[in-house]
From TrEMBL:
Protein name in the entry: ABC transporter
Coiled-coil annotated spans: none
Keyword terms, alphabetized: Membrane, Transmembrane, Transmembrane helix
The species this protein was found in: Luedemannella flava
The keyword Secreted is annotated on this UniProt entry: no
Lineage: Bacteria, Bacillati, Actinomycetota, Actinomycetes, Micromonosporales
Transmembrane segments: 12-34, 40-63, 84-109, 121-142, 149-169, 189-214
Keyword Metal-binding assigned: no
Amino acid sequence: MTALVRYSLSMLVRSQGYIAPFVLFGSAVVVLTTNDFGPIAGTYSACALIQFVCMLWFTVAIVNTEDRTQRSLTVVAAGGQRRVLVANVLAATVVCVGLSAVGLVYPIYAGTHDVAPADLAVGALAQLTCGFAGTAAGLLCSRLVIPKAGYAVFASLAAIGVMTMVRPVPPVGPVMALLSSATAPDRMLGPVAAMGALSVVMLVASVLVAELIVRQQD
């Protein structure tokens, strides 16, 4: 599995599909958090939002690096469609963890905040939660599930709109609403962790749905 994950990441680098979402993430984090002050949980809310959008984009880029023929060869060599899908998800998780580290640390040095351990825990959980949700959505918007690029773009925009603008839709909306509220960080940990668990369930479900759709297409 390690070799498959490294292969997925290397294909992403070779395709240069990482450049646009990486630039978007870096630009948004810098613009939204530099010289910011006040409760850092609110700042982490902005980082979590951009994490969701960028991880959707990164996941689509990872899955779409191979055309149908190349992916068929990879599936045969790897021993099954599920193993390749899991490797794609793990590669996206590596990217998600890296972006979360940047989104967690940069606002502290670029703004003026009183930071407690609970703030860091909530910020990390929130960004990972939104990142996993973005990965789940990206997998379902990839070429495996939606072969036509135009439809995939509309599906991606719809997913971003619904999950970020409709606040009751979990897990992104509730996490953003909670971090933007006046709730104490230590009281946020439980609800944010629950949303994190939900995002993992969504990610597992998206892998199973994508695998089922690919099998039906074959």
